[in-house]
Amino acid sequence: MKPIVAIVGRPNVGKSTLFNRITRSRDAIVDDLPGVTRDRIFGDARWNDKLFTLVDTGGFAEGDDDPFAPHIRRQVTQAIADADAVVLVLDGKGGVSPFDADLIHTLRTVDKPAHFVVNKIDGEGQEKNMAEFYGLGIETLFPVSAEHGYGISDFMDALTATFPGDEESDAHPDAIRIAVVGKPNAGKSSLINAILGEQRLVVSEMAGTTRDAIDSVFIRENRHYVLVDTAGIRRKGKVSMRLEKFSIIKALRSLERCDVALIVIDAEQGISDQDVRVAGYAQDRGCGAIFLLNKWDLVDNRDGKALRRMTDDLRMAAKFLSFAPVLTVSALTGQRVPKIFSLVDAVYNQYDFRVTTGQLNKVMEKALERTPPPLHKGKRLKFYYATQVSSKPPTFVSFVSFPEAVHFSYQRYLVNQIRDAFGLDKIPLRMLLRQRT
Ligand code: GDP
Ligand code: GDP
Fold first, then answer.
1. 317, 352, 387 — which closes off a domain?
2. Ligand 1 contacts CB of residue 352 (under 6 A)
3. What's the CA-to-centroid distance between 119 and ligand 1, angstroms?
4. Tell me, what CATH number does 291's domain have?
5. Cβ(247) to ligand 2 under 6 A?
6. In the chain, is it the N or the C terminus that has fewer CB atoms within a 10 Å radius of its CB?
7. Beta bridge partners of 119
């Protein structure tokens, strides 16, 4: 399980520059459908063999750059509470500000690793700017230049020192892992209770690999399921649940660990921007996804067209998840709650799909024959062969003479041919193009 690292600090200290430096050195993964333009506030990173997720809390502020605004303060505090490690970025050019002292104080009160970097130290000559920061009483300060890379590798070694290595530890390797995500009051905890309440068999809580990650494990028709990150939901009183704020990091954490995300939407209210944002996170994660239009008992469906209307709205707003099935449910009455499982199974079976290189290339050859690749500088682009490199989600690598010349629409055509040939209509598929000359 990947640790989540939150970057905090005042506006303009260089958080997003640092974020980009740490996350950018990855293979660009091209999804088969264009995402809507969203501010990226999280990204996956790897240092040596350590994988982790980085969250830039700068993106949490909506339109307001005043670090003392209460909502920014709250969001930063929440991010600190939810992350596994925190990086406070200080401005080596601008100097210390009261907000920094405030954040340092907050970090002292939470029991998790905190790292302090002084950014904009663009070389050894500028280390003199560090003096002022030592006055803050922090034991280890990392001078870095997010822009130029100075000091980054020492910092990254320290940050990732205690992170687990690449291999995944999992108590139930065959279980289907389900995350329940959605905006506040959509009905997530009601739904979790309805799902677990429906299980007359034993439900056990299992500690996840990281603190506060408690999962609920159950068996249904001989299949193991894990509802991830359900810590305390079954015990907690309704009042405190309602007070619990929407936490992006919590949603990310459970999406990170799931095979299938149940994206819960309050159908009485219709599709909101926040629903679309959550859907966007699921898409970025590449997990399977199912939209649950919850509170269906409250929806006025006298003309029998409510489902059609909402599905149209949803498809319009979240085109990028057009493959995700839609189901109307009521956590309150239990209506169609059992049906969630047949959908989860169907999505999971595709998500876990594997194909041999031989079968895959038969499909690719046919597709290349039916619609030949376009010309590039007068020569036909050449596709050599393709192979599946991983599942969950199925990910293919295709070797091409000039990957950068392959137009998005042609790539999408190929992906859709694979979808059709193997009946993969309910999940994301990824295709990476690699150079071969
Ligand atoms: P954020 O608001 O904390 O996310 O800050 P940004 O990453 O947007 O950076 C704010 C400004 O500081 C930009 O103009 C960056 O170019 C600049 N900056 C960021 N990192 C460095 C650095 O390492 N050295 C210098 N000299 N400038 C930097
Ligand atoms: P969460 O914040 O997403 O966990 O949402 P909750 O599960 O706490 O539900 C928020 C409110 O919606 C509570 O008052 C629930 O009783 C109510 N609620 C949840 N699901 C349904 C449903 O299917 N129908 C109706 N009528 N109310 C629901």
1. 352
2. no
3. 8
4. 3.40.50.300
5. no
6. C
7. 91
